[in-house]
TrEMBL record:
It comes from Leucobacter chromiisoli. GO terms for biological process: iron-sulfur cluster assembly. Residues 1-46 are annotated as: Disordered. InterPro entries: Fe-S_cluster_assembly_SufBD, SUF_FeS_clus_asmbl_SufBD_core, SUF_FeS_clus_asmbl_SufBD_sf, SUF_FeS_clus_asmbl_SufD. This is Fe-S cluster assembly protein SufD. It comes from the Bacteria.
Length: 403
């Protein structure tokens, strides 16, 4: 008896194409290749160009996206924010239309939250810095309310200007926003974003910066309050001799989510960057996320770059995610490196302090205080530094570290 064998012949390739190089029958095979580098991420100011967020995406996998539906998919109030700006010679403040040519120079959204804000805002708040003498502007936002909002801010330093702009955020809020920073040739600008929101506040922000020839930008983030804070600065060193520093300090309490994704893009010769973010965590469910991306493009010969993140864990039940990434497309650089560390107190530091007659409780507080104030003291405004130091002290006074 002969056994029948069923056989199946593969269909011949269409149009003479080589077998194995055809698209799969389910379609869209070429569009499913994941993004390999930071520079390949799609950019658009239209929220419709971004799919709905599931939480499985690389840029969202650490974020509690289930709590952000209204900011990602809902209708946003894009009207003017209630803001107050200190008056000073060399500081300008005005509202400009969304089609103004001064909008869109520093960058475009790379995620749905930023695109939703860009799509919804009606006018942008423009803050300008001019003059050779150093000037300071404080932009206060403390009455945003709990309705979901969108906002857009442009900060511009004229060529050879020297200034400090402090964004003060407090009170209640549910906001997604974009902040553009344009630093003219030879200018020196420091931008500080302070988050001291109420416990229930949610703040999603994307900061974009372009730094001119031989110009310098210092970008400082201090996140101490808010239920969810996700602030992602992207600094583009796209002119020769540009310098960028990204500094951050954060203190997460129980149930608080503080996230910072930093991008330093070297795209011109002889550029320099330094990234230093330091955080402390205490309480059940405290969660911090730091992702640092540094890209040294083929055009960025002579680059000097270094990034680091340090996290100090004060209690059980916390989680700190820290991911440094470094991409180098040219071998002609001065140097590049990255570091990340998460841990508890250094026993040697505590032993040294206690051997000098300091109690264990006070020694622990001194270690945490010095750990975070290294960043805060670089703001350059005594009043703001003192207030933030007091805020850190208040955090420590309630900490189990001090008990």
């Amino acid at each position: 008896m002969t056994e029948a064998v069923a056989t199946q012949t593969a269909p011949a390739p269409q149009n003479g194409a080589q077998h194995g190089l055809q698209a799969h029958s389910d379609g869209g095979w070429d569009s499913k290749i994941p993004v390999q580098t930071r520079s390949e991420r799609p950019k658009s100011a239209d929220v419709a160009d971004f799919p709905e967020v599931t939480g499985r995406e690389a840029v969202w996998k650490f974020t509690p996206v289930a709590k952000l539906d209204d900011l990602l998919n809902g209708e946003l109030d894009g009207s003017r924010l209630p803001v107050a700006v200190t008056e000073a010679t060399g500081i300008g403040s005005e509202w400009i239309a969304r089609d103004d040519a001064r909008i869109g120079r520093a960058g475009l959204p790379e995620d749905r939250a930023a695109a939703a804000a860009w799509t919804a805002f009606g006018e942008a708040h423009l803050v300008t810095v001019s003059g050779d003498e150093r000037v300071t502007a404080v932009v206060t936002r403390d009455a945003l309310g709990s309705n979901p909002r969108a906002a857009h801010t442009v900060i511009e330093a004229a060529p050879h200007a020297h200034g400090l702009v402090i964004l003060e955020n407090s009170g209640d809020a549910r906001i997604t926003e974009n902040v553009e920073i344009v630093v003219g040739d030879g200018a020196k600008l420091t931008v500080v974003s302070v988050q001291q929101w109420d416990d229930a506040a949610v703040h999603l922000a994307s900061h974009y910066a372009t730094v001119g020839r031989d110009a310098s930008l210092t970008h400082i983030v201090v996140s101490l309050g808010g239920g969810i804070v996700r602030l992602n600065p992207a600094i583009h060193l796209d002119h020769e001799g540009a310098n960028g520093e990204a500094l951050g300090a954060y203190f997460a309490d129980a149930g608080q989510h503080l996230e910072h994704q930093v991008y330093m893009d070297h795209d011109a010769p002889h550029t320099r960057s330094r990234v230093t973010y330091k955080g402390a965590l205490q309480g059940e469910g405290a969660h911090t996320v730091w992702i640092g991306d540094v890209l040294i493009r083929n055009s960025a010969t002579g680059t000097d770059s270094y990034e680091q993140n340090r996290n100090l864990v004060l209690t059980e039940g916390t989680r700190a995610d820290s991911i440094p990434n470094l991409e180098i497309e040219t071998g002609d650089i001065e140097g590049a490196g990255h570091a990340s560390a998460t841990g508890r107190f250094d026993d040697e530091h505590l032993f040294y302090l206690q051997s000098r007659g300091i109690s264990e409780e006070e020694a622990r507080k001194l270690v945490v205080r010095g750990f975070l104030l290294e960043v805060i003291q670089q703001i350059g405004d005594a009043e703001t530094e003192e207030r933030l130091q007091a805020a850190v002290e208040a955090e420590l006074s309630e900490s189990v570290v001090a008990k």
